[in-house]
Fold these 2 entries.
Entry 1:
Amino acid sequence: MQLKKTLEHLKKQQIIVEIYGLGYVGFPLAVRLSKSGITIHGIDVNNNRIQRLNKNELLDSEINLKDEFIESIINGKLELKNSPIKSDMPKIGIICVPTPIPNEKIQSDIYVKSAVESFLEFSKLGDVIILESSVEVGTTESIINLIESKGLKVGKDFGLCFCPERIDPANKEWKIENIPRVIYCSDDQSFQISREIYSNVNGANLIRVTSPKIAEIVKSFENAFRLVNITLVNELAILCDKLDVNVKEIIDAASTKPFGFLPHYPGAGAGGHCIPKDPRFLLESAKKLGIKFDTIEHALKINEQMPKYIANAIEEKLQSQGLEKNVLICGLSYKANVEDMRDSPSFKIIQEFKEKGFEIFGYDPFFDSNLTEKYLIENHISELNFTKLDNLDDETIKEISCMCIVQHHDENKLRVKEIYDKSLIPFIYDCQSKLLKNLQSNSHLEFLGN
Ligand SMILES: NC(=O)c1ccc[n+]([C@@H]2O[C@H](COP(=O)([O-])OP(=O)(O)OC[C@H]3O[C@@H](n4cnc5c(N)ncnc54)[C@H](O)[C@@H]3O)[C@@H](O)[C@H]2O)c1
């Protein structure tokens, strides 16, 4: 009954939606939902983030939302806060907080639980929580217990849904608006409420599954699938290096098979906050049950070894050519055309080179010196162990022996090509096999995977 009333209030927009966590997932969601006319409270415990947003200081990936963001703030549809407020209106809480890799010191659900606790502080019968963070198997059930410990009955007078985010940053084809979403809902009313909410996100393209565990496993399995395939192709690239054949030619030829083959291309390893992390949630489940998940375990191990392999390959070549021990790492983020530096393979390659006594330079058009502290924390390093270059001008790069391209950002594509075509750096190592061979160039070009 209470949930039915919440649905009616939602249809009349007499409701507050609280979005917990204004990061890569929560911020665009807050802006998008605030356009629908619903009142959104964007909540983040990081005061620095709130202050930056209040000054309209957005990340590169958020710039396209700037006008809509400012408009929502001006018309009062989006309010930024560091904690929730009490209200008589029905409330929906959407949880978009980080879920770290669990270890002895930290549980993966630590931030999810604390955000849910904040929501529950002022919640009433008929309120609904939607989890969007990627969570370990069993987390949603533990949240049910947490809610019920406050005297509320999930599925009767309180709704709980798990709708994992699938966003693929910088993907121009598949965006928040057209990516279908898997969802678990505690009851039919909560599903109707979710449909109403997500009609403003992806046209309510929701695939309802029957249990929270299924939705949790789907999310981790999708990313395990990516990790395993990336690792498979990276190992193939290493074999191709030894066999002296080009891995890209093999993948392109295999891709002509019209069924049963999905091309993946080599690179310095999967980074970011999702692909190297979510598969670990399945490993944790297996561990708790006393069984193994060797495919994931092995893939994670190979993924971690890629930076060492690349640093060794470059060191060998520089030695054989009698070149100085210095390398420019080009592209520091974990993925092309994004500013996200979390768990990036570039930082690991730099670490490998530092241990070998190399002088290292780093360039990335997305690197924002104001966020250096954040990058260090995200990559588990205590200081910036390379010289950051502000550009790739002739004068700046003139002493460099090797340019190791980890990410091909569109923004520096032409300059990188020019550096190669004009032979401005003697050795270029392309981790993503994207530069086109130019027989006129005197630079030596090598790919990961020959
Ligand atoms: N980034 C992606 O591309 C992506 C894609 C799919 C799923 N996910 C998942 O979504 C979740 C969020 O990821 P993200 O990339 O947006 O993280 P993020 O680090 O960019 O943002 C999370 C925000 O939550 C805030 N926060 C932490 N605890 C809080 C609390 N108790 N209350 C309110 N705010 C709190 C942090 O200060 C931070 O600003 C993770 O589980 C992640 O795995 C991320």
Entry 2:
Amino acid sequence: MQAYSDRLDSREAVFLSDSHIGAAWGDPDREASLCRMLAGLSEDVQDVVLGGDIFEFWFEWRHVQPRLGRILLNELERLAVRRRLWMIRGNHDFALGETIRERGIQILDDGLCLEIGGRPWLFLHGDGMVPSDRLDRQIRKLLRSRLAQWAYQNLLHPDWAMVVALGTGRASRAVNPGPSANIDEYEATAFAWMEAAELAGVVHGHTHRPLQRERQGRVYVNNGDWCRTCSRVRIDAHGAYLELIT
Ligand SMILES: [Mn+2]
């Protein structure tokens, strides 16, 4: 995996994901609470990893960008002056582009590996990571394809495109309201990766279920989300902390 070979040293990192800004769902105050948490981060935090599905949907047309998350983006731009800021593409906001990069945020296609306290930690969104997520991986490939991007860019008025995208998210939650059937596979997959690649830990979101497990000195953490639980993961040289922020 590209993320693994490009690893960087870090003193301390904070990971959060799945705020789904733009969805009429979850805590209506979540953009503000996320900004408050980010503004209050300790000076020791060197890397802020936004781990996917920060926006319910994102697409950049040639002259138009969605009216979503403007308060958050302003806060991130401020933060990016003194820290490294990363955004991993999620299955909802896979089309992050130039207007995000212009604010000093680095966009990652798959994930990121940071060496914290001399040990490697892998951060990713989590969609398509387990073997049975075959359909997720195919959809991911299709949505990210040049043809799909071209169609979105050229065939639909941006207002209609947003209606379609936000409506699709709402409909998929109505059809599958609970955790997916394969939710237990994530932990097993992560531990298998840790052993194969000698990782200290794997951190991901996507399933909206906060969970931390430790096995033989290796750590699996799902951060939950910043939609309903408002939880984050902080990692320093001593380990990982799954924290609920109120
Ligand atoms: Mn997701």
